[in-house]
Here is the input.
Amino acid sequence: MADRIETEVLVAGAGPVGMIAALALAGRGFHVTLAGPPPSAEDRRTTALMAPSLTYLGSLGLTDADFAGAAPLVTMRIVDATRRLVRAPTVSFRAAEIGEARFGLNIPNAVLNAALGKAVTSHPQITRIEHPVTDWNMGSDRVEAVVGDTRIAARLAVAADGRNSAARTAAGIRTHRRELPQAALVLSFAHERGHGGCSTEFHTENGPFTQVPLPGDRSSLVWVAKPENARELLGLDDAELALRIEAQMQSILGKVTLEPGRQVYPLAEISASPVARSRIALVGEAAHVIPPIGAQGLNLGVRDAEDIVGTAAAFRDDPGSDTALAAYARKRLGDIAARSGLVNLLNRSLLSSFLPAQLARSAGLAAMRDIAPLRNLAMREGLRPGSGFSSLFSRSREEVGR
Ligand SMILES: Cc1cc2nc3c(=O)[nH]c(=O)nc-3n(C[C@H](O)[C@H](O)[C@H](O)COP(=O)(O)OP(=O)(O)OC[C@H]3O[C@@H](n4cnc5c(N)ncnc54)[C@H](O)[C@@H]3O)c2cc1C
Here is the structure.
């Protein structure tokens, strides 16, 4: 083994969450080593990043100008496209209703990762090593990791090494894991009619089929289906697949023309508990994996990064101490449990032919359509946990004061 490096914080995994965590830690003055291969430039997914996540990226120096090829999300609509006995009404959420110009931006993953990668490599406080961690060793006052032919010692390791996190296993953190009978086909397409900044999530018996706006008359698609159906869709010729997509969207955007490049992602539910121990703090998909419904996954990962950085700064003397890690785990508990619980429940209610589950989903969406304050609460909570309730209370305080 040639080198031994001592660093304040080691971030393992250079996916979006790892890069965001590294930038934020470096911004707070930590010396950070970021280890892991660069993310694939062939990732065809796009990510709907909500306004609070964009604000956080803004605080790290990344603005709209860094995200060429992104489009604003101004309306989000849910359409029940199941052929079930009980069907939910269509519900539209408009950013203008809560006084916002947009909910967020739909950014191609390749663009987001390239912008983050550029910021990381030009940051003077970040040492970037493009090799994976191949071994972990947890000590009482340091964690050590082998990266290439270097041994790196740190007070805290932030594990952003994805859904099969080796750091999580090394720390002895248990997971609840369920491979889902679903896979997501992703691609981008052009269409005849304008989308007006609207994303439409069609709920089907096999999961959501979600169109999300891109610049011009273009959109990205996440089509959740049974794995065998997703594989069949992947193999269709462009003309046939375009017809299937148009039919699935009930022709709301007219004729569809596919852009090159399709991929299929297997889906799973994974939750780790606790999210930190033995000098390792899990962030992003190392801590939680949920199906792609309502654009929650990476937004949740951004909040993990925000919280581990806040905690590390508060426990500056030893950010990987048991006390610091317990504080981080406590902070993340409610948000992760609430988001994962809601998304998994909604997904299961789509797959279930159990009548009470359909009734509950339908009643929930009907209430959301008809009761404006409830809809507003859902929109604010969807953007950032707690913000819906705090806005309700501040409004009622204003009313009392009048
Ligand atoms: C189809 C689909 C659509 C989605 N759409 C949205 C959306 O619109 N909005 C949203 O918020 N979320 C969305 N998500 C979720 C989002 O993609 C994930 O939350 C996000 O990619 C997680 O990022 P991450 O950095 O935690 O993990 P990853 O992106 O998986 O990165 C993990 C990194 O760790 C690296 N690694 C692995 N092992 C090691 C090792 N031993 N050492 C070092 N590095 C290692 C890997 O190479 C990888 O680069 C979607 C997910 C899917 C599947």
